[in-house]
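Researcher: Predict the fold of CHAT domain-containing protein.
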Amino acid sequence: MELNLPEFDNEFFCIINRDDSTLSALISSCIYKSGKYPSIFEYSNVTIEKGEYSKEKIDEHVITRTRAEEFNIKIKNTINSIGGCEYLILAGLTNNQKSYLDFLEDYNVIEIESIEDVEAYLHPIVDKNEYVFCNNNDIHYGLYLAAQRNCILKIDDTVPNVTLELEKDNKGIIVVENIKSVSTIIAVNYALSVNASLKLIESPEISNKKIKYLIEKWQEGDINSFNDLSALLYDKVQDINFIEYQYCTFFTIGAPYSLILKNVIPFTYVNLLFKPDFFVFNNLYFENREKIYSSIVFSPLEFGDDEEIKHVIKKFKDNNYFVKELIGKEASVYNISMHVKEYPFELLHICSHGGEVDGFSLIEEYTDSDGNTHVVEYDEVVSFAPHENQDKELIPVTSKMIFRKFDGLDWRSDELKSKKYPHYVFTEMVNELHKKEGKSRKRKAKIADSCAIKCADFNYQGMFNVLAGFHTSPVIFNNTCWSWSCISDSFLAVGARAYIGTLWEINNNVAKETAESFYDNLFNNTILEGLHKALIHTIGTESENIYVLWGLHFSTLKSGQSIQNSKENVATKILNSFYRWRAKLKTANDKSTYKNIERLINWNYNQLFKYFFIETIRTIKIKMVNKITQTKIL
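Model: Structure tokens for CHAT domain-containing protein follow.
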């Protein structure tokens, strides 16, 4: 597969309110350049300005406040990583949103609040003089056409829809569910930057929960469930002749099109709900960046000799990767949790049981601040993470609440939304449920919508907000059952650039052969090509078309120089984390934060001392010599 990756555009960098898709399209048409990927990032709604607040107390603004603080850090790091920009565009942002951006004084900021501002502020500084007109309902194809012609897009609701034939000369096609947000504009920009054909479709009128239900019923023998799913999905793509292209990427909220299209060509997915802007950026940025050549292989040895672990480890070592083996008893909840969050790795391979797990069902009452009593029905999944250095600390407990009903109405239903409860009612609900003691739990064999990976001790639920210690954007191969959704969301939301999972319960032998074939092909192909070639082992089995890849068509993993060199890379990254957390400890302003940072410092220190002692000493010596040399030069 021929790969011509676009470069980042350092002239413009745009942060835009995620609901302003029209404004995003107009700005994109102005700043788009052939062969460049426009850096446009969507900013979610923020309900309160930045200010002092108590971290010990959860209030109704906690979700948007936390999200805004995390966005500020990520977007600041993103701009720095590409060397800054000449113009920083803030488009459609509220004062609440802007209050969290603490780097604006470092850049030449252009604030755009309306369509008229686009013409006033951007047209004079871009080298484009001609226009393409489209109506407000046709902005995606209008942008695509304007960018191809090096024109500026203008809105005129009197003009008919843009006529855009699918281009057959392009290597790939990007199919985008039009959810009418900036996410779809990001998808259009991506299609333009990789010179792919574009097809917009309406999102299927089916929830991810219903998709999972139909797949489950089909696997139980109900062929009508598969026919129902096929009818809902195929209707959206039936006019596309996929075999004319080398690959297809779906920007979707979760529909598994490759299943009903039977993988006639290599298919990948981008989740429109989990930061597609950062997802595309990470794939482009980390593709040509210096690699660590580090991997983690996880298996509690549930399948004995009937698993791929030995083969996977050998392939990594043959390609000069330093492999961290979390095998057997080492495959604990604590180990996978800490390694996923802190360890610098480029690929995590998981071999175990997965999917829905057991837990508890509960019915609780609470009274809100207005004096109204409510009844909450929910399921709870609990996991423990004991470790050898526990000392006198309490064992960490992970608890996930999956809400079912509120005052007798289905959670997230239209009926519940129509009641228009104030947001603080639900914030208070979460507070009260966390504080409540002596709950009456009823054991439940299988919790719907739960997701976990079986470890040597307990179940790992994949609840985290940091991935690979911020060092890289890794690839995840979760070779467990039902791993395409739920737990994949966690990895995609925090920065994985590729995730391979399964749509239902996979046959052990098929899982083993597919994984081995994938790694046989991986280092000489793209990730997509490696997986597509490996799918031959699923053909004719009950696991045919079971695998899906959240990722982009060009992403690769290459061979390292030597295992020792790779080990030194890992040691350097862990040492950097140790220094970074130690510096942050000095600014910790509450007891909980201080204790959490202290744990991370100790974990990184233990890793260095136990596994990388010689490499750490060598790295420290090199840093000292370089510092002395720089001092002498100065």
